[in-house]
Amino acid sequence: MTSSATVTLNPSGQKMPLVGFGAWKVGKDTCADTIYNAIKSGYRLIDGAQDYANEKECGQGVARAIKEGIIKREDIFITSKLWNTFHAKEHVEPMLKRSLADWGLEYFDLFLIHFPIAQKYVDPAVRYPPTYVNDIEKSIAYFQNTPISETWGALEKCVEAGLVKNIGISNFNAGLIRDLLTYAKIRPAVLQIEHHPYLTQPDLIKYVQAEGIAITAYSTFGPQSFIELNHPKAKSITLVLEHPTVLKIAEETKKTPAQVILRWVTQRNIAVIPKSNNQGRLVQNLDSTDFNLTEEQISAISALDIGLRFNNPADWPTPSPIF
């Protein structure tokens, strides 16, 4: 089974699947098999990043699926992200090529700026991926004054060189996006944001979609994604998938709570990238676009919004507020 629901990206016109598989927190020891199984189960969008420290393993899973004839390269949409330490123009293309080599690919379908935060360059020979915490100082690596315009210009050259088909942004607020659109020669195709019933960000979504920029939601199940990270905010609130409102709608639609939440997102033309190591849930997550919620049901889920953000750089060891 493969979901046929897609969103068309501007300006390339390429179609991106609305339901993909997110590689965040997928361990190296199981990653290759997990990605392979996701593709075999019908997933045609894999969302990765340099910071996830598993790009080689993701690539191995994709290569196996291609070798076995399950897919061709053009059948699958691969996303990666530029880490904070590689924002300087001289580092963007080399590090994009580094990621391509790790994946074993000639091009990415989408490459995002992971955060609008420029940190001091870390030589990959010293530590890769650098992660946001410096292993030596046990704190956020020093920042550097690299404007987003410089990073974006370097990414545009990567598009022109055929290394990536679409470029975009992640964790950007509306003000930064407005500024980016004033100088971008190639407009961002996608904005990836934390989006779940406890953090709906309706004004940002309305503005971005009006600008013709597609949106991908991550951490769609809210606190569920952060419990294993021992996030204090995730322990003190009802899990989205156990909320009475969600359970009621699941009963009404004869769908799982997870399918209800995913449809709440995709029915508004926003892509989702859930992950699961459970084969049953893997298939259920993919099979979440063949029904519709009523406007009342969508509104009821949206009304759960309390502005609760889990992935917030302001909470990093060296606070880096961007929202």
Would you summarize the structure shown here?
By secondary structure, this protein is an alpha/beta fold. It contains eleven helices and ten strands. It has one domain: NADP-dependent oxidoreductase domain (TIM Barrel).
**Structural class estimated from helices and strands:** alpha/beta
Biggest sheet, open or closed, and with what strands and sense?
8 strands, parallel
CA(first)-CA(last) distance: 39 Å
Beta-strand content estimate: 5-15%
Give the name of the CATH architecture. Answer: Alpha-Beta Barrel
Pick out the low-confidence regions.
none
CATH superfamily: NADP-dependent oxidoreductase domain
Question: Which sequence of strands runs across the widest sheet?
Answer: 3-4-5-6-7-8-9-10
For the record, the CATH class is Alpha Beta
> SSE string, helix = H, strand = E?
EEEHEHEHEHEHEHEHHHEHH
Shape: globular
Radius of gyration: 19 Å
* Global mean pLDDT: 94
Oligomeric form: single chain
Question: Number of domains in the coordinates?
Answer: 1
Per the CATH scheme, the topology name is TIM Barrel
Walk me through this protein's architecture.
- With 323 residues, the protein is an alpha/beta fold.
- It has a single domain (15-309), classed as TIM Barrel.
- It is built from eleven helices and ten strands.
- The protein has helices spanning 28-40, 55-67, 89-103, 148-160, 174-183, 202-210, 232-235, 244-253, 257-266, 279-286, 295-302; strands spanning 6-8, 15-17, 21-22, 45-47, 77-82, 108-113, 164-170, 190-194, 214-218, 271-272.
- The strands form two sheets. The chain has an eight-stranded parallel beta sheet with strand order 3-4-5-6-7-8-9-10. It has a two-stranded antiparallel ribbon with strand order 1-2.
- A hairpin with a 6-residue loop joins strand 1 (6-8) and strand 2 (15-17).
- Helix 1 packs parallel to helix 2 (55-67) and helix 2 packs across helix 3 (89-103).
- The protein is globular, with a radius of gyration of 19 Å.
- The record marks 81 as: Lowers pKa of active site Tyr.
- Pathway: Carbohydrate metabolism; D-xylose degradation.
- GO terms for molecular function: D-xylose reductase (NADPH) activity.
